[in-house]
Amino acid sequence: TSIGFTDIVSRCTRAQSEITNEEYDEGARRLRAKLIKYNPMVVVFNGKQIFARFVGRKMKEVECGRQSYRLEGCCSVFYMMTNTSPLNAHFPTVQSRMFYYDEIRELVAQQRVSKYWRSESHEKCGGNTGTDNSSDKSVQGAVS
Question: Burial letters for 68-78: b for 16+ Cβ neighbours within 10 Å, e otherwise?
């Protein structure tokens, strides 16, 4: 089992508004290629704005939690959590965000026991492909 962390833009900024469209577009292209190449079980986005932009939706169209979004050629389950920056006034402490980590832990556990992830080959996703970008708020108890 391994966990990887990455980002869309690799330079430090004080706010997402400092990221240019060109930087974002190039970073999103690289991230999509990495996701298709490495095909992780779960992809977690740290922040509503960056996830909405990545999937081509408006912020009001996405909610935190498990997502029904699928990336063509990638069998990963997508999850979006609120930004963990201390500037996020809605969840200012680690304790106030722990439920996200609990949901992610449960989602990873579910993926580990799924037939697809136990198989030798991950060439077929068993119906876990496509490009449905709608939000799925049904998860109970899963990148910046």
Answer: ebbbeebbbbb
pLDDT of 84 strictly over 90: no
For the chain, give the longest Cα–Cα distance: 44
Helix (H) or strand (E) holding 78: strand 77-81
58 phi/psi in degrees, rounded to 5: -85, 150
User: How would you class 17 by CB atoms within 10 Å of its CB: exposed for 0-12, middle for 13-18, buried for 19 or more?
Assistant: exposed
The pTM assigned to this predicted structure is: 0.76
CA distances from 143 to 47, 76, 107, 116, 128 (A): 8, 13, 16, 23, 20
Least confident among 5-14, 29-38, 47-56, 62-71: 5-14
DSSP state of 90: T
